[in-house]
Request: fold
Amino acid sequence: MSEQDRLAIACLRGLSLDLPRQADSGSGHSGTALALAPLGWLLYSRILRFDPGVPDWPERDRLVMSNGHACVLLYGLLHLCGFDLSLEDLRQFRRPGSRTPGHPESWMTPGVDFSTGPLGQGLASAVGMAWAERRLSEEFGAELVDHFTYVLCSDGDLMEGVSAEASSLAGHLGLGKLIVFYDDNQVTIDGPCSQSFSEDVAARYQAYGWQVLFADGEDLQALEAATRAAQGDPRPSLICVRTIIGYPAPSMQGLSEAHSPAFAPEEIRVTKQILGLDPEQLYQIPIDLREHFQERGRELSQNWQARLEASGLKERWSVFHGPPKLPPPPAWDRPLATRVASGLVLQSLKLDQLVGGSADLAGSTNTKIPGGIHFGVREGAMAAFGNGVAAHGGLIPFCSTYFAFSDQMKPSLRLAALARLGLICVWTHDSLALGEDGPTHQPVEQLATLRALPNFWVLRPADAQETAQAWALALARRDGPSGLILSRQTLPLLPLTPQVELGAYVVQDGPPGSPTLLATGSEVHLCLAAARLLEGPVRVVSMPCWELFESQGPEYQAQVLGQGPRLAVEAASSLGWHRWADEVLSLDRFGASGPGQELMELYGFKPEEVAERTRTLLDSQGCRRSSKV
Reply:
């Protein structure tokens, strides 16, 4: 190990001790950062290609810290290597609004390639990143796209089911530019791994079709040799790195307590002496390499830019990396299930940058496209994979399954919303009306769950026209995820041109004071049928996207909602509807197995019941109360 290596690693370890201690937050995860400092330094100093001045340079190598609790190491590396992350930013570790939060946040910190926190999500999403690199390399050639995706992960990451799903998929796909470093320290927060995790990780990954290598976490030469071997293999690689958590702290190394909280002042003082640092000084940077890394990065990115200019592919590159140009929607002339309409829209788009597939349900969700991705029955990995594709850039990912199974995607959906990733989800079989598969497949609470998720657009179209508009909105939205919630059953065309971009609009108007029926999806037609049974005028509103409606001004909202009493109708949980309606006809229980139309009628979703509820509401003159099935 050279003197420069020694100083850099000591610096990183010193910062890993100081920042959590000064944050005084009761945690900070110094132990993992201490143990991984040599590996982190090796990656940034000898392996990774990056430009600190252009953190989002498309041809950079990606690094995903799946064990995001150790982010203090990443922040130290970014500072040391010339990224726009100052010493003052480091001092603000874990402070509100700082660029050094308690887990990596890509929207906060330059140089963070993926936002991690929930264990397993980073590793699973890195599979999508590696696949995106391969897809773009096929499109543009290795002169423009030829980079690696690296992952740092922990025992906890490998215990999570989503990482198992994604690793299995990565092996099947043969993603040779995916290299994962497994921090094998044999300790979890609650104690030794042996109390909960005794499998042979190496054998498992070999069975997945991965190359498996081994290295000592303190041996830079062995770590580099393993990394070079991984770069040359066509299989994804797992490098098992044996470390001692908390090393070289004399009293804390190897203990589960090294995970958290921050080390005691005396332990920090003694450890700094071992590292050759001043035990009384904070935030020591004994070596300044920022200019070196900045110059190296500029050369890399400028050479790549020159290749792009000379390639003749610059215009096509801009197409892939710019907003999608959409063709006109299909002409609709007959009733269709919205899942069928969605499939026709998807086939008409012909966008080379649109990629995706389904969790083994493409025929049912109508998401078959040329070159589509076969995820198998891996809903969790599918969503995380899509996040990785979106975070990589250059491609627009979609994924699909039945709506009830969106539950298995929830952790990834939350990260997509948090990190503003443009993932598109296509969910079909949207209600009780799916029928005979029964309550295990009939979604009840899923709409409410997703509507509660900030920055997630829930789009439940009522006909083919609304479906086409929902697709256009989701494709144009590159700063957050969207979900299309689609019917199995055929739905008539609405009698006017929809306005999904407004979130809600009047389908059938009436004079001031008329009752208003609010609905989404198939229930819009139910409300129109009920209106025909009523003696007086009734307003009907289609409300395909609450989130878009909420973004409209109060004047438009009042115009749509009307001045009379309001009844909301949706074959799902009533949760959330009372902010818009006086009464709700809903499904606050599980369904049953049977023909879809029979079930809808059995549970009260029929024109006669909606009409009767409307009469009752008129009699009470808008008195607020809930009516639930």
